[in-house]
Target: FERM1 protein
Amino acid sequence: MISSNDYGSHSWELLVTVDHQHEEVQKELLLQVTGDLHIGGLMLKLVEQIKISQDWSDYAFWWEQKKCWLLKTHWTLDKCGVQADAKLIFTTQHKMLRLRLPNMKTVRLKVSFSSMVFKAVSDICKILNIRRSEELSLLKQSGDTLKKKKKKDKNSKEPVTEDILNLCNSPVSSGLSGSPGLYSKTMTPIYDPVTGSPASSTITWFSDSPLTEQKCSILAFSYPNYSPEALAEMYQPRTLADKAKLNSGWLDSSRSLMEQGILEDDQLLLRFKYYTFFDLNPKYDAVRINQIYEQARWAILSEEIDCTEEEMLIFAALQAYHVSKLSLSSEAQDFASESEVDEVEAALSNLEVTLEGGNASNILEDITDIPKLADNLRLVRPRKLSLKTIKPYWFVFKDTSVSYFKNKESAQGEPIEKLNLKGCEVVPDVNVAAKKFGIKLLIPVADGMNEVYLRCDNEDQYARWMAACVLASKGKTMADSSYNPEVQKILSFLKMKNWTISPQAVSDPESTDMKPECFVSLRYTKKYKPKQLVARILEAHQNVSQMSLVEAKLRFIQAWQSLPEFGLSYYIVRFRGSKKDDLLGVSYNRLIRIDIATGDPITTWRFSNMKQWNVNWEIRQVAIEFDQNVSIAFTCLSADCKIIHEYIGGYIFLSTRSKDQNETLDEDLFHKLTGGQE
Model:
């Protein structure tokens, strides 16, 4: 019998569904509650009524209609807004999730479905031994990108689970937090610094990681490639609009998986979302470096990012005949010599300069005599109604501007024109085999972009002028400490492209067991016969044949960074006042408005000139204010505007990282910059 006091004037019945595995116990329970009962008290009342002896600590209430978790156990039902019509599910916060990694391996592990995605990704990365989790996020594949696979599945059934790495036995604790010294540079490395192979003395440096040595090597090494048939079935974007579809599925970092409709055992993609790879260290980052390399490799193979034929052969030589070969050979297990370590450190130094990671020493910025370049170059100006004109001039590069004169003698007077390169787009226009060394400059003007080409005579001249242009576009001068490393990086990439045909190297392409269609994109497999591709890849391989495994991966990443489209995430938008759709490219330091029909940049806006940005959530419009009273506003058509808002805030958050600071993340700052005020 229930006493009348229990019913009270303000009590009411609440239906709760319990998600448990005990078939003999009912799953729906009716509880008599009052509005002043707190969530913790409701849990206690429920567990007492279920009468099942088990650990309920991971359980919490999920409010089905509102699509939210009730995690604040001290809040009352009234404060939460829970009334008699509410449908609450008492379920586990950690559930199984399948993740497709950049190397196309699928892992199955337990993830928090109640934590914000930012925190969930951090926990996932701790399991997988990937540092700097803030650079990654979770991506849900759109329906368009899955169409090909669905067509294929109708014809042939493939085993879904055979390639899954199961890490479900060791779930990550929801309360896990790394100690301040988690990534200390003085710790004993768990990987060979050059090969990236797991050291036998220890298995992992994360004490809670379920990775065994064997599983760790699966993530840290590149294994035999997909078949040409499998490559042909992959989603390959044909247009800029197709590329925009690839970025429409990023999950909201400020909400939980469950709040975004992700169900237990769903499959998501774990990808590097932000292209600012900070503090790469081969001693601790074997998995991270390999996964970045793999993401770059698949982006090139699927033509997600464009590259020239010359560049494609370099990528093929590095990944095909080098990384794949070394990964499978005993050479990959050898320990590094001092010289190899030095080479890797140099490559890493160049990599960080390119990505603007860390606070490089600015001592050189303080000197009064800023270096300048002066040389004979050719100026090319495209004409709309006539042939382009090519004329030689005397060019002087100083600060962030290029001036050109009729000849060297007239350089003391007024220049014919002075081009300010701050905020411009710099695009390489190079063909080493044809001795073409060009620099394409897209300089912002009032009505769009002014297109200018500079033609250099040789590699050295090109490297010096290209490095100066790249720095000037970011507002830096040649006095900056990153100038010389930038020059060396450009020369290094040109050297890889500059191969000569060796009869010994290509005498018998048929004797190799290489499948060239696994290493180049579909466009080139249609253009050339396999024998031709093998011969050309072997030619290109001569310049990279002496590299160690990790150096080859770093060079591959470096070459990927050198591509004009590197780091650009595309979205279809409609700018305020415009009658047609445009493409918006979001990069780590700028936004680019692009003509969706031609692919030509229209305007560039740098984050360094941005004063503020916000979102009008009612009309889903992003508004941004820049210096000099420049303001833009647009609505996003290919994705939710929250994704672009988070991209901008995320890149600004990542720019605050420093090697000097503690490596624990300021999660609150990330959510302030990316969360928005919906």
In short: The mean pLDDT is 81. The first helix runs from residue 4 to 7. Residues 488 and 605 are 28 Å apart (CA to CA).
